[in-house]
Specification:
The complex is a heterodimer of chains A (about 210) and B (about 100). Chain A has helices spanning about 15-45, 50-55, 60-85, 90-120, 125-130, 135-170, 180-205. By secondary structure, chain A is mainly alpha-helical. Chain B is built from 3 helices and no strands. Helices cover about 75% and strands about 0% of the residues of chain B. Classes of the chains: A mainly alpha (about 210), B mainly alpha (about 100).
């Protein structure tokens, strides 16, 4: 039953090292966003009224919908790992497609959310923005920068998952060699984790 | 060493249970924010506490930390401790100027 694997059988795989490498990368991501969160807290403490006022411009409903979407997509990718480990490739693929659909839905929401604000001139360089008090400018600058960087991570995560799906389809990623799928899952959960903090800090601080 | 070849498989129910937990916490944080318009500082603390609870749920269940070797949990808490101390030091700096 494959208990006996020779030390060097031509497959130099080390799932534990794969996972460790992924986690080390995720820590650098945490500190990247962490730095931005510190900037947010400092500016917020210096402009608390302006931040409060500006936060009312954000749509809590869209924010909540996006939160639900991301949490659900985290569940579908976690379940796809379970499915592949149990040997159910078809279900794993369906769940990964679902994850991709949620990622797309998140981005579509984000597109409309940003679009409405830009239409109203709330974007660095536009008219309405230029006439705001400096505290509100800071709020929106941080809002665009942090949610933009997060959206970029969603796009990268979607591409990563797409590559993994191709490999699952071809049988290069299976229940026995699942590291790549697990790592894409870890990345996706990190994107979810960051949103879990972005959502209350920008949308719910009133 | 049998476990090396047979990692813990988290079942669907557990994933769904985690999802339910995350949903309840999301509803809580939205309700607290919408209803308590005046408790500024407290609202922030509540929001951060709920967010951290959600983060721990995601990390321990979805990211498998609960079932992985201890070293991953230790690393995560060390990194978070480092980050929180940076944050507290920066905030103290601004408050005491």
């Amino acid at each position: 039953m494959g208990h006996l694997v020779l030390p060097n059988s031509g497959h130099n795989r080390d799932p534990e090292a794969n996972k460790m490498g992924m986690w080390l990368f995720l820590f650098t991501e945490l500190l990247l966003f962490g730095g931005l969160f510190i900037v947010y807290f400092v500016y917020r403490s210096m402009n608390s009224d302006a931040f409060l006022h500006a936060s009312y411009e954000l749509d809590v409903i869209i924010g909540t919908i996006n939160t639900v979407i991301l949490i659900t997509s985290s569940m579908t990718i976690a379940m796809s790992i379970t499915a592949l480990q149990k040997g159910n490739k078809k279900l794993a693929m369906y769940l990964l497609w679902a994850t991709q659909a949620f990622a797309l839905a998140f981005l579509v929401n984000k597109y409309f959310e940003w679009g409405i604000k830009i239409e109203h001139g709330i974007f660095p360089g536009l008219d309405h923005y230029n006439h705001m008090p400096s505290g509100e400018k800071l709020f929106f600058f941080l809002y665009y920068f942090m949610t933009g960087l997060h959206a970029l991570h969603i796009i990268v995560g979607g591409i990563f998952i797409g590559v993994v799906m191709k490999k699952v389809q071809k049988g290069e990623v299976t229940g026995e060699r699942i590291s790549l799928l697990e790592n894409s899952g870890l990345y996706w959960h990190l994107v979810d984790l960051i949103w879990i903090y972005l959502f209350p800090l920008f949308y719910l601080i009133h | 060493m049998k476990d090396d070849n047979h990692p813990h498989i988290v079942n669907y129910k557990e994933h769904f249970g985690t999802w339910i937990g995350l949903m309840i916490l999301t509803v809580m944080t939205v309700v607290v924010s919408v209803t308590n318009a005046n408790l500024q500082m407290l609202t922030v603390l509540t929001a951060l506490t709920i967010a951290t609870t959600k983060a721990v749920l995601v990390a321990y269940y979805y990211m498998h930390l609960k079932f992985d070797q201890k070293i991953y949990r230790i690393m995560l808490w060390v990194v978070m401790g480092l980050f929180v101390s940076f944050m507290i030091l920066t905030i103290i700096d601004y408050i005491t100027r």
